[in-house]
## 1
Amino acid sequence: LRSKLPDVGTSIFSVMTQLAQEHGAINLAQGFPDYDPPQALLAALAQHVTTPGHQQYAPMPGLPRLREAISQKTAHVYGVAAPDPATEITVTSGATEALYAVLAAVVHPGDEVLVLEPAYDLYGPAIRLQGGVPVYVPLTLPEFRPDWDRVKAALTPRTRLIMLNTPNNPTGAVLTPQDLTTLAELLRDTTTLVLSDEVYEHMVFDGQPHHSVLQNPELRERAFVLSSFGKTYHATGWKVGYCVAPPALTTELRRVHQFVTFSVSTPTQHALADVLPDATLFETLPAFYQQKRDLFRELLAPTGFRLLPVEGAYFQVANFSALSPGTDDVTFARRLTQETGVAVVPISAFYHDGQDHSLVRFCFAKQESTLRAAAQRLQQGL
Ligand code: PMP
Ligand code: GLN
């Protein structure tokens, strides 16, 4: 068989989770919470999953009542004109399907797609599956800021799309309004589109708001903006997300979405439509995760890891070079999992060429007891 992705192994998240299970390690590798969704959401699902009439295909773009709730939420949170549920909002099988469908919809063979690295692991392979050419622009260490001069230098007439991710997985960095203004200026006379992966939109810390591409009118006109209910409602296993995009872009996205999954599970959409109008559920998330971030940083302080700043999302990146000089990050992550009993992800997994900066990623979307148990192992085992 001639593989379409010959150089791609199994995703690092599956690999580290399996290794964690084999060695009884605490899994701070794969990003998922070890607590449940809000009770109101679980109760709503229990109700809809037993409601006759809610068990068949949902409309292809998503349940109208869920799209309406997304529209109102978007206007409320970002202070923007409400996106039209009929023409600008599409419910997808997680942000993952939205990413794939957007790329399939707009990338022609030979088109270039700019990716700021380190980047979420599916971006590069999903671009290549469309015959696209990923063009990688490094984020600048140590704070993983975008260097817009380098982005400018990488833009060509073939640049079909630039992919943004704010708050960022794995780095925890966020884009500022100035970043968005600068990007809008760079793209002004081009036909380059924007895909903005904002699945961690409700996890931004230290009193800062999340700055959405939807708030920049120039970018919004050319952008697909993605979110994920899995992140917002501690329900990564539900795999429901959505995309907000102008009508012409939404039309193209739906051309693909209808032939990838057609539609998303009906009872879960009803349950989400029930709870989404209650803003307290997501408005309390920044404080909820900031507390976890602060606790975890405090717990790691005595361990010898050098902690990078975390402005958003639920990941802590840490430099281990003082603990294990000369060790590459993959070896270090494996040892930490096997010998210390705490599973992490090596940051090289987020670089297409496996660049090693002696960094690993911890997920702190865990109960306090889990974080304390992990820290205890780290303090004793290092
Ligand atoms: N983008 C980023 C940056 C993510 O971290 C994730 C979650 N792993 C996704 C997309 C996928 O989201 P979902 O689980 O809704 O498919
Ligand atoms: N987004 C999650 C992470 O970064 C994992 C998603 C997955 O397992 N594919 O860890």
Note: Residues 11, 13, 30-31, 169 surround glutamine (ligand 2) (CB under 6 Å).
## 2
Amino acid sequence: MTKIILDCDPGHDDAFAIMMAVAAPEIEVAAVTTSAGNQTPDKTLNNALRMLTLLRQTNIPVAGGNQKPLLQDLMIAESVHGSTGLDGTELPEPGFAPQKQTAVELIAQTLRESEEKVTLVVTGPMTNAALFLSVYPDLKEKIEQIVFMGGAKGFGNWSPAAEFNIAVDPEAAKIVVDSGIPLVMAGLNVTHQAQILKEDIEAIRTIGNPVAVAMAELLDFYGLYYGQEKWGFKGIPVHDPVTITWLLHPEYFTTLKKNVDIELNGKLTRGETVVDQWNLTDKPENTTILMDIDREKFVETIKTSLHAFD
Ligand code: BDR
Ligand code: CA
């Protein structure tokens, strides 16, 4: 059993990560925390509550995170996720309230109360993770690993060099990669292979339970952005659930172990995840980088997860 805290900014693909995590018998979701990213922090928190209500998981503690990135102003991805952050379907109103604590406090409490180490899964900007590490360094040893969706080896999607989650809060990402905690990076190299095709969306819809139907509708909307010709994708890259798929099925992936650092100053490259491919520095190999995924098995794993809600 892998115990996780899921820090996310739902977000269509975050919604898939939440769904797969709660569906998996091998994963215990100890807490869900939300960050400002795909939408404003009030909306991402509300979306996490609405998703967990749809999934009938109203007993999982949820807390909202920081209002903005550590240093720069918040950038949101309304062009991808719409004005609610989860446009495309009608989700139920939240059936429960968030914790009174902040995300950072909930992460700390969850770790303190856990007998075993916990995996932190981050599928949004790393603001909460970085604040947590700064405020509670004594609890760092309770984190088994940080598995994050973010970055890429060699390119970006928000700027030519930077992926969205890192671009939103590069200083936070820098604190996380320098933390010494083992890292797993699900960056664009792998998530651009984790594509859901049109026929997969129809197969998901056909599963027919209310969760599957809602997820298919979310994909219909999300596909409007990723279906644009400029991307040249056959399907829709569904980034965030690659983290959960890694926890469930590492055998579906190829990986590289390298140093990853964050560019903070480059005029063209701020927010780049710089990978030391040839070990040219003496920096530690701090990150397992996911490089390739078996796409068909990825889609099968999503479908299996959805059957948990039959
Ligand atoms: C990442 O950015 C967000 O829009 C998605 O939810 C994902 O976490 C992909 O770059
Ligand atoms: Ca996300």
Note: The two ends are 23 Å apart (CA to CA).
## 3
Amino acid sequence: MRRVAVLGATGSIGGSALDVIARHPADLRASVLSAGRQVDALVELCRQHRPDHAVIAAAEGYRALRDGLRGAGLDTQAHAGSEALGALAAGEACDTVVAAIVGAAGLDSTLAAARAGKRLLLANKESLVLAGELMTAAARDGGAEVVPIDSEHNAIFQCVPTAQAREGLRRIVLTASGGPFRGRSRDTLAAATPSEAVRHPKWSMGPKISVDSATLMNKGLEVIEAHHLFNLPGDRIDVLVHPQSLVHSLVEFVDGSTLAQLGLPDMRTALAVGFGWPRRMSSGVAGLDLLAHGRLDFEAPDLETFPCLRLAYAALAAGGTAPATLNAANEIAVAAFLDGRIGFLAIPSLVGDALAANPAGPADSLDALREADLAARRWTEHALPRHAA
Ligand code: NAD
Ligand code: MG
């Protein structure tokens, strides 16, 4: 029986994880659930899944959570704040952690789970982008079993699950749907609205990653994520646009052989792999009927229209704190875009300017990374008015 902490339970990945967990009552149990600020949604999930602990990140949510759990007649214990979250992720209440908080806000709890040697289903890609070296070292030292919960990285994991299986690997190819604006020219994107940007053609996801998919920053973050997970330099990580989102990624070996993982675009497959590995378990996702789909298309990414992907490669090449700066500037820019404060094209401009204005330093400590993250957030906040929509 795995006792699972679902961090970010009220989100898109959190919901998919709970769906898979509920299908396997004899093998999986949600023992800890967390959310950012949605107390009512968290209480409702507790009603359904009866965890031992519930954590609300926003401290002011504590009282409402405690009273809500009591009112529902549950003995789930209420907690609040990031320290409680880290302690529960690392503690006895769980052996498996689904890290599905969005953004750098997930760093501490993800790191705590890695250090504590948990089975770590890692969806929170921003924490790897921000602190990949430290995260990898923490997982190694803590003996954590990391299974990537990003469809591309999960695909690569399934193709080459161990370091031994990666011998003779020449390159990996991350597939990208191209997002809602694939095929559009740069000038037509100036007026793109948040509701257009979050309308992803193939995946149903949270707002931040949906905007990242529209700018191709998501693929850029994934290149950096792949670098850390599979220990490959950026020039051996390629990106291929594949609008059907059925081939989730490919690995190529020195002998000319290519392996790929295919499936319907539904994150429950990746989550079931994470819970069961090396065993397979049902996920609720149907098999792939290639005859019904008919064709698989591939094209090169358009880096002129979507410069974020290029910026991410550049940040990876620059190394040090550059990826932390890239991620922080992007988080601020995306939040401002979703708030209607800046236009769509301001996102790549702000991230590019933030990288230029905040030169990379060494990323040898968590403090150095946090400082770079904070500096880039401040810098980008200050630059927002110049890009006002
Ligand atoms: P979402 O916005 O749907 O959910 C985010 C969750 O994080 C919510 O439960 C929210 O309450 C919680 N949260 C937000 N801010 C928080 C804070 N400051 N402290 C604590 N909790 C906080 O996002 P999502 O789409 O589920 O994505 C989650 C992560 O998974 C992201 O890193 C994303 O890149 C990654 N991911 C998602 C998908 C997908 O299909 N949705 C695919 C691949 C990777
Ligand atoms: Mg992905």
Note: The pocket of nicotinamide-adenine-dinucleotide (ligand 1) is lined by residues 8-14, 35-36, 38, 57, 100-102, 105, 123-126, 150, 203, 205-206, 208-209, 267 (CB under 6 Å).
## 4
Amino acid sequence: MLEGIDLQVQRMLRRVNRQTLRHLDGSYQVATKSSYSDLVTTIDRQNEQEIDRQLRVIDPGCRILSEEGFGDRRVDDLDGHVWIVDPLDGTLNFVKQHDHFGIMLALYVDGRPTLAYIMDAVNQDLYHGGNGGGVFKNDCRLTRPADVGLHDSLVAISSSLVLDDVAHLTRVARQASGLRMYGSAAMEMIGVLTGELGAYVSRLKPWDLAPGRVLAEELGLSVKSIDDDGISVLSSNLVLVATKRAGQDILDRTD
Ligand code: 2AM
Ligand code: CA
Ligand code: CA
Ligand code: CA
């Protein structure tokens, strides 16, 4: 049953991605949400409506937690099949760069991380996997990245955490090989999955974190809260996604 769902979701994501790329010519409207730097476009909304509609066909009876609010009104537990959806991640990059954005979703079954998908939109590369079956870039299985420490790693830290020096993260940045800010959790998660980045630190909403978390844990990478003991799937978390060594190096410096 999960295999059928998986293949249908992959096809659906590629379809939604092709539709998204057709709008790179600027044929969409932009509005602000919480601030001038927090944008939403008609493509975020269209993608979410399309993904949510298709998920209800592919996986009848599921519940959906999605960023723009077209999913279920309240999802406050993980009973049954729960999909967590980010219909366009890196909206600011989509609008300003026409590149470096993605589409992400994850399936939890009775609280168990089960399937996850991160689409690198412009490159049309789909990272997917979970449930003990490994992680793939399209049809190619990814191997666990080398267990590098902080000094030998490029690290991505979201700009607001560095600007406000949250949890001594400027010190972490100085001790890394280099600091990167991609402005898209999807792109940054892919960076850690492929070993391009040794770590990614950010404050993430459920739809920013769940897909990358499922794939990172499947690959044996660390996913840890840096401000308390645990991570909640249904709320915001200050987290690191990293190699085991880089993750520990960061935790030692953010105490
Ligand atoms: P989004 O584009 O789906 O909103 C940018 O550092 C990353 O943080 C992106 O993955 C972006 O996802 C996410 N993000 C979440 N809340 C945000 C906000 N209020 N403003 C800008 N980016 C936000
Ligand atoms: Ca957003
Ligand atoms: Ca996002
Ligand atoms: Ca989004």
Note: Residues 2-22 form the longest helix (21 residues).
